Recover the amino acids of this structure.
């Protein structure tokens, strides 16, 4: 019969075996969760890249349409400018013709009045010119009087011709003014149509630009999701360890066994650590991470641990110093422990993102 001591020893071994099996199962489940999260992140990244490509194609097509519309608007604006200049020239020309017409009307009225007076006098005196010749005192006087009468008749004829010429010129100018006004009216109508067309096209262009701006913002948003970091978080020589998801074994007082939630970036002690995007920097120091800073941005936050000293806190811009590489907390050498938490959720592997900006 086994002794109580042997029974206790067997029970202890059984408990240790059961604990080991439980630990293995827990680690297996945890690894499965990590792999599942990574697969989901990769799927989301692939979908975002595809959506980004489609959005870029639409933006390019929209830009091409805007450029074509802009060329048409430029041609239309040129035509409007030339039409406006033609309207001004036509108005000046009509004004000059109207002034000439006023002068001709006054001249025609004066000539006609003079001719009417000559005709009235001729009618009133009837045969007086004949008596004027017959009452001459000598042949020379008669010849002189005949010459005078001929000159008067010539002048009357010239006056009549002037009246006719002036009236003819007046009619031509009046007709030209009428035609000029008709052409000017048609030109103004065409100008109004072109202006309305230009306003419609400018409104269309504005609408397309607004749609394009929305698409550009969408692109920028997708780029920010796919490439969340604008600059490398370590501003100096460094080496990035692809260690996300690795199981770290530590004593309980050093955090115990846990899955590594970020990438370690080795750099010389005191190397500047900068904000990888615009946001707000806050200190989140703790026993395991030592002196630490989190930076919250539009699409999530980053956690920076093991700093030697702090930099700027509060609102920060990309590239602004928020701390310096150190060995505080649970660190075996100078390095930055860097985590990326999109949408302020669980950490995801930032390695590929870091490679994009930490060349």
């Amino acid at each position: 019969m086994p002794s109580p001591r042997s029974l206790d020893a067997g029970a202890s071994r059984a408990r240790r075996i059961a604990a080991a099996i439980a630990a293995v199962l827990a680690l297996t489940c945890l690894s499965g969760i990590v792999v599942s999260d990574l697969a989901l992140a990769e799927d989301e990244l692939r979908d975002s890249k595809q959506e980004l490509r489609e959005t870029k194609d639409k933006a390019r097509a929209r830009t091409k349409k805007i450029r074509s519309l802009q060329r048409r608007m430029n041609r239309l604006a040129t035509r409007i400018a030339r039409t406006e200049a033609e309207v001004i020239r036509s108005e000046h020309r009509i004004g000059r013709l109207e002034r000439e017409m006023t002068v001709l009307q006054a001249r025609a009225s004066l000539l006609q009045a003079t001719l009417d007076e000559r005709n009235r006098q001729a009618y009133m005196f009837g045969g007086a010119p004949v008596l004027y010749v017959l009452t001459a005192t000598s042949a020379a006087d008669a010849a002189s009087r005949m010459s005078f009468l001929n000159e008067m008749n010539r002048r009357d004829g010239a006056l009549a011709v002037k009246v006719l010429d002036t009236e003819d010129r007046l009619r031509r100018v009046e007709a030209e003014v009428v035609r000029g006004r008709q052409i000017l009216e048609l030109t103004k109508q065409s100008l109004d149509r072109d202006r309305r067309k230009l306003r419609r096209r400018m409104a269309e262009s504005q609408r397309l630009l607004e749609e394009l701006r929305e698409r550009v913002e969408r692109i920028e948003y997708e780029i920010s999701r796919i490439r969340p970091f604008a600059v490398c978080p370590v501003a100096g020589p460094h080496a990035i360890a692809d260690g996300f998801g690795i199981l770290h074994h530590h004593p309980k007082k050093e955090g115990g066994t846990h899955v590594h939630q970020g990438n370690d970036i080795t750099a010389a002690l005191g190397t500047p650590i900068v904000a990888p995007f615009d946001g707000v920097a806050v200190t989140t120091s703790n026993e395991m991470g030592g002196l630490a800073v989190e930076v919250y941005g539009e699409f999530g936050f980053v956690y920076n641990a093991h700093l030697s000293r702090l930099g700027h806190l509060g609102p920060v811009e990309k590239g602004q110093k928020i701390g310096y590489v150190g060995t505080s907390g649970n660190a075996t050498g100078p390095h930055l422990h860097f985590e990326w938490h999109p949408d302020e959720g669980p950490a995801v592997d930032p390695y590929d993102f870091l490679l994009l900006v930490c060349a």
Notes: The CA atoms of residues 48 and 177 lie 69 Å apart. Helices lie at 4-125, 128-134, 139-226, 351-357. The radius of gyration is 51 Å. The chain has four helices and eleven strands.
